[in-house]
Design brief:
Metallo-beta-lactamase, Chain A, alpha/beta
Length: 217
Amino acid sequence: MKLRIVYDNEAKGSLKSDWGFSCLIEADNSKILFDTGASGDILSYNMKQLELKRESIDAIALSHEHWDHVGGLDAVLHPEVEVYLPRSFSSELKKRIAKQVAKVIEVSGPGDITPGVHTTGELGLMTKEQSLVLETEGGVVVLTGCAHPGLKNIVDAATYFGDVYCVIGGFHGFDKLELLRGIKKIIPCHCTARKKEIMAMYPEKVEWCGAGAVIEL
C-alpha cells in the first residue's frame, strides 16, 4: 500500500503548498482520495504534477465539512466515483455531490471502504469527523484529516481494526505528546499545532509530510 500527499501546508519540488489536506491511497487495484484540500485549482495543479487523473480515482472519502478539506471537491468528482462522507454533512452538500457521482455513502459507525481500508465512523461532538484505518503487515495505520475529535479518541477507535503502528495527518491541538510513545511511525501534517515539538520529541519516528511526499506502508 502506498500513500501520496497531494495537498498540504508544505510542499516539495514544483508542487504548490496551501492550507488544507488531501492524500491519495493506492491499495491493491483501487485509488482512494482522502479529502480534497481548499482549492480545486491547486488540487488539480498538484495532481497534474503527480500525473494523477481524476478519472482514475475509485472513491473519495471526506473527513469533515470544513472548507480546507472539501474546497477542492468539484475538481475530482466524476460519474464513476463513490463518495464516503459523514452522515452529519449538510443536506445541501450531499445533494450537490449526489448529482455528479455514482454513489454517495453516508458514514455513521465503523465500516469498510475497500478491502484493507476502513472508516472509524463519525467521531466527535462539535465537529464530527471520520478518519481512515489502513491494514498493513505491521499493524493498522490511522489517517486523519484534522483530528477535531481528539487524536487519542481516533486512535482508540482505530484499535477496533487492530494494533496501531502509524498515525498520519492533521493532529490539530493534540498536546498529550507522551501518548505517541507507543506509536512506531508518526507523520504530522496540515493543522498540527505542536508539529515542531513532536519532531523534537520523537526524531527517530517522525517523517516529513508535505505535498509530493510518498509514504510506503
